[in-house]
Design goal:
By secondary structure, the chain is an alpha/beta fold. The protein has nine helices and seven strands.
C-alpha cells in the first residue's frame, strides 16, 4: 500500500500544472514503452488557454499506418508509382491517369503481369502514408473469408462492412476481384457491400483479369453489381 501511495505521489508530482505530458517519464521498469509521450496509453495531455484535457497521441496514427502497410504482401512491398515501369503505351497511360488523379476510383483490368496489382498497392501505400482517409486492402480470398464470417458469426464485425456502411471517408482496395466465384456467398451480401460504398461515395480500386463486360458474360458477378462498379470506377485497361 505504501508503495502505491509513493507511486501516486510521484506521478502527481510529475503532473504539476504547466508541465507537458510529453515530459512525463515512464514509471515502469521492466517494459520500456514504444512511445515516451503517452507510455503506450494512446492519450496525452492537451492544454489550451482555457482547458486542460486529453487528446489522442500522435503515435496512434503511426501505429495504424504501420499496421496498414504490413498488409501489403511481400512481393509488392516496394510497389510505388515511381517504381512502376510501363512496358507499353497502355501501361504508360494507366500510370498517367493515376498520377493525375491519385484519389480516384479505378477498375484496373489486364492480363497477368500487366502491373495492375503493382498500381493498386502503389495507390494504397500513397493513401495510407497520407493518412487522410481510412483504407482497407483485401484479396478476394481475404474478403470472402471476412464476409462469410460476418454472416455466420454473430460476435464478429467485418471491418470492411463496418467502414463501408458509415459516412466517414473510406476506401477499399480489392485485388483479384474476378477470382470470386458465384458460390462464395449470396449475391445480396456482395451487392450490399458495393452499394454501401456507392451510396456513401466511398473510394474503390479493384484489379481483375476480366473486363466489366466479361464479368457478366462469364457470370462472375450479378449485372446489378457490375453496373455499380461501372458507375464508381474509371476503367483502366492495361
Ligand atoms: Zn503515444
Amino acid at each position: 500500500m505504501q508503495a502505491v501511495a509513493t507511486t501516486l505521489t510521484a506521478v502527481r508530482e510529475r503532473l504539476r500544472p504547466g508541465k507537458r505530458a510529453g515530459a512525463i517519464p515512464y514509471i515502469g521498469r521492466d517494459n520500456e514503452p514504444a512511445c515516451r509521450i503517452c507510455s503506450d496509453t494512446g492519450w496525452c495531455r492537451a492544454e489550451g488557454e482555457e482547458f486542460i484535457g486529453l487528446k489522442r497521441c500522435k503515435c496512434v496514427k503511426e501505429r495504424i499506418r504501420a499496421a496498414r502497410l504490413v498488409e501489403i504482401p511481400e512481393r509488392f512491398r516496394e510497389s510505388t508509382f515511381e517504381s512502376y515501369r510501363p512496358g507499353n503505351p497502355k501501361q504508360e497511360w494507366a500510370l498517367c491517369q493515376m498520377l493525375e488523379d491519385p484519389d480516384g476510383s479505378y477498375y484496373l483490368t489486364g492480363s497477368y503481369g500487366s502491373g495492375k496489382t503493382h498500381l493498386l498497392y502503389a495507390q494504397y501505400r500513397q493513401m495510407v502514408l497520407a493518412g487522410k482517409i481510412r483504407c482497407h486492402v483485401r484479396t478476394t480470398r481475404g474478403l470472402v473469408e471476412e464476409l462469410r464470417r460476418a454472416e455466420f458469426d454473430d460476435g464478429f464485425v467485418s471491418p470492411v462492412l463496418a467502414a463501408a456502411s458509415k459516412p466517414d471517408p473510406y476506401r477499399l482496395f480489392w485485388d483479384d476481384l474476378d477470382k470470386l466465384k458465384p458460390a462464395d456467398f449470396k449475391t445480396e451480401v456482395l451487392f450490399d457491400l458495393v452499394n454501401s460504398l456507392y451510396d456513401h461515395i466511398h473510394g474503390l480500386t479493384v484489379t481483375a483479369n476480366y473486363s466489366l463486360r466479361e464479368l457478366i458474360e462469364h457470370e462472375r458477378m450479378h449485372p446489378a453489381i457490375v453496373r455499380r462498379l461501372d458507375d464508381m470506377c474509371g476503367v483502366i485497361a492495361l
